């Protein structure tokens, strides 16, 4: 079809030079696809290089500890991806003898691998004719063909998958999938695309009908929850501190943090002081409490906005199994806490 030919020609002329496009190795393609879920290419690329250097094979990744994986993942966010990555590596290495499934339906059975990632691996590694459908694909197809179906509905995913499959050249599905994703990432961008220079500017239905800004249609809006975290940085007479592991399900599972006082709103010294002495650290002799930074840090996650304050709490005792500042950097932290540590304790990176 003419659409596919024009798209692929554009791709060959404009594609970015990305490392995972130079291989059909399913391990590398799987790594890149997991990393690029909800992550920009520019942010994910250094992590791809770091992981492939530290863990050259799926066996190396499988044999690593979860903390090693989380530490290397630090700053990439959505840490459940890293935990699933590690578990899947162990499954592939131990149960499948290091061989990734070579078909879309079998790839779907891997932990952390959804329809999009399975389609990417199946087409890029094994040339299986299965379309990838992500936000870029929704945007390109909805605009070009003027499809007003609500992309937040499951039925719409099926509709766009069928359309993409119809357009896809069955003898080279990989290049079509790469091309349509790249076109959505570079040319048919969400806001203010440069339509006058677009290769489809004489055939795009949305451009002709002046609907580029309203497509694709997405009705469901994410509800954002505000949470208020007060991190308590203990400092004992030796200058050591204490951290804890987040073992509960939810954000930052299995990452480390300072002792946490969560409140229902931003609070001041009086509230923190009372809670520290009566509830959080009743067994310690508190020498002083002071706020470490003047402004509240707002850390935005996809579904939560965290309002974070850091408080230094000096105590008269020695913390059992206390950590000095140089030991802190060996643990995996949420990036907002790591940045605080790096700045406050002047750690070497």
UniProtKB/TrEMBL annotation:
Keywords: 4Fe-4S, DNA damage, DNA repair, Glycosidase, Hydrolase, Iron, Iron-sulfur, Metal-binding
Cofactor: [4Fe-4S] cluster
InterPro entries, per database record: A/G_AdeGlyc_MutY, DNA_glycosylase, HhH-GPD_domain, HhH_base_excis_C, HhH_motif, MIG/MutY, MutY_C, NUDIX_hydrolase-like_dom_sf
Catalytic activity, as annotated: Hydrolyzes free adenine bases from 7,8-dihydro-8-oxoguanine:adenine mismatched double-stranded DNA, leaving an apurinic site
Pfam families per the UniProt record, alphabetical: HHH, HhH-GPD, NUDIX_4
CDD domains hit by this protein: ENDO3c, NUDIX_DNA_Glycosylase_C-MutY
Co-factor note (free text): Binds 1 [4Fe-4S] cluster.
HhH-GPD domain segment(s): 35-186
EC number: 3.2.2.31
Major enzyme class: hydrolase
Family per similarity comment: Belongs to the Nth/MutY family.
Protein function: Adenine glycosylase active on G-A mispairs. MutY also corrects error-prone DNA synthesis past GO lesions which are due to the oxidatively damaged form of guanine: 7,8-dihydro-8-oxoguanine (8-oxo-dGTP).
Protein name per the record: Adenine DNA glycosylase
